[in-house]
Design a protein that fits this description.
- The protein folds into three domains: 108 residues, no CATH class; 187 residues, no CATH class; 43 residues.
- The chain is of the alpha+beta class.
- The chain is 24% helix and 31% strand.
- Strands 4, 5, 6, 7, 8, 9, 10, 11 and 12 form a nine-stranded antiparallel sheet that branches. It has a five-stranded antiparallel sheet with strand order 13-14-15-16-17, with no helix packed on it.
Length: 408
């Protein structure tokens, strides 16, 4: 039995129905291998129907009227596998002189870059020589109108999604954002809101993929994880930046604002910190510094947690920042959203709700399964409606009761 079916086609040319062919203008700044693939992927999202991870593509570059053009072939992966099983080179009728789906070498890319540079210089010389010579354009001559490579379109950003989620009733106790310059990924840990409240929100578009975990209940409140993948069109990236000169300033800022530095890595540069005191002030100071110095991150994690104390629960805010050597426009937008919605994560005097039961209130007592007699000395009513109770045993030890579980 054959693993692949036999393809009845010319040994040289692929069947036309087995692939799609596109030609688009291409900018030299995207010619670097990593940038090239990302840019082509973003263009195929607009050009090719149902373009997905099931497709594969390859491109060859050429010059047309002193302009760099990309010839792109798109095939389904299983179809390409059938062809590759019979021959190593893939040819199409539109470009018989080029073999597709062969690995593009660095030598070819550099040769193309040098050729383009030489042609550009020659074009400038010819233009400077003849720019004063008048030219009559015939009436029947048509000037080709071409669209710019980076067509600006309306697309949803991760910052807009964060702003929307922050307005919903409920609580964000965990948030993760990452970006490679083309796709933004967002993960929310939510409590007190249902998936259907998000599933039909106003940003539903083809460029957004949403995924929701199963819903569990804590204190009769729904808890689940919502993940979003946002494709940016067009893909953009600025030049590489260096954050070395700001590292010492960042450490000083952390120390001055009573932020605890848990971990730091050098390459890539990353920080893991925790904020307990003056959360909102420290949090906003840190974000303003990142905005002012234009320090981009490729990933940021924000997690809220609690530390139990006597008659009081302290909220702590953990942040992890993975700094990027490349600057993305989406990073600054995210910083602004996090800054404008600081109360979502930070504890302030207005949103910290504490109730204490001490000497002037009725003393309650319970007995544990081990027979210990516990006297209730206080409780904490958290903003989400849950209650933490504090008891003292016969030996004076404080016992914490959270959702029925006892901790000494």
């Amino acid at each position: 039995m054959k693993l692949f079916k036999t393809i009845k086609a010319s040994p040289e040319i692929c069947i036309a129905d087995d692939y799609d062919f596109y030609t688009i203008p291409f900018a030299l700044k995207y010619l670097k291998h990593t940038n090239r693939d990302r840019y082509l992927y973003s263009e195929l999202e607009k050009l090719h129907p149902c373009f997905s991870d099931d497709c594969c593509f390859d491109a060859r570059f050429r010059f047309e009227k002193s302009r760099l053009m990309a010839d792109i072939v798109v095939m389904q992966k299983y179809k390409l596998a059938e062809y590759k099983n019979q021959k190593k080179k893939i040819y199409i009728s539109e470009r018989k002189g080029y073999a597709f789906f062969e690995k593009q070498t660095t030598k070819n890319v550099m040769l193309l870059s040098c050729t383009f540079f030489i042609l550009t210089c020659l074009t400038c010389l010819v233009f400077n020589k003849n720019r004063s010579v008048p030219r009559n354009i015939p009436k029947d001559e048509k000037v080709a109108q071409t669209e710019p490579v980076n067509t600006v379109e309306n697309y949803v950003t991760g910052a807009e999604i964060f702003n929307y989620i922050a307005t919903l009733e409920g609580k964000i106790y965990g948030f993760i954002w990452s970006s490679d310059g083309y796709v933004e990924k967002l993960t929310f840990n939510l409590k007190g809101v249902f998936p259907e409240q998000i599933d039909h929100f106003q940003f539903q578009q083809n460029s957004i993929h949403a995924d929701f975990s199963s819903v569990v209940f804590e204190d009769n409140l729904p808890v689940f994880t919502a993940s979003f993948s946002v494709k940016k069109i067009p893909w953009e990236m600025s030049e590489a930046i260096s954050n070395n000169q700001y590292r010492s300033e960042l450490r000083d800022l952390i120390k001055q604002n009573e932020i605890e530095l848990l971990e730091e890595t050098i390459n890539p540069f990353s920080l893991r910190i925790v904020i307990i005191q003056n959360q909102q002030q420290a949090y906003e100071t840190l974000l303003n510094f990142l905005i002012e110095k234009k320090l981009s991150v490729s990933e940021i994690k924000i997690m809220k947690s609690q530390v139990d104390g006597i008659n009081k629960t302290k909220n702590q805010l953990k942040l992890e920042l993975l700094f990027s050597k490349e600057s993305f426009s989406s990073t600054e937008n995210l910083y602004m959203s996090l800054l404008q919605n600081s109360k979502v994560f930070c504890e302030t005097e207005s949103n910290a709700m504490f109730t204490e039961t001490v000497n002037n209130k009725k003393i309650e007592s319970i007995k544990t399964q081990s027979g210990k007699s516990l006297v209730k000395i206080g409780k904490v009513l958290k903003q989400d409606g849950s209650v933490i109770e504090y008891y003292k045993d016969d030996n004076g030890k404080i016992i914490t009761n959270i959702q029925g579980a006892q901790y000494e």
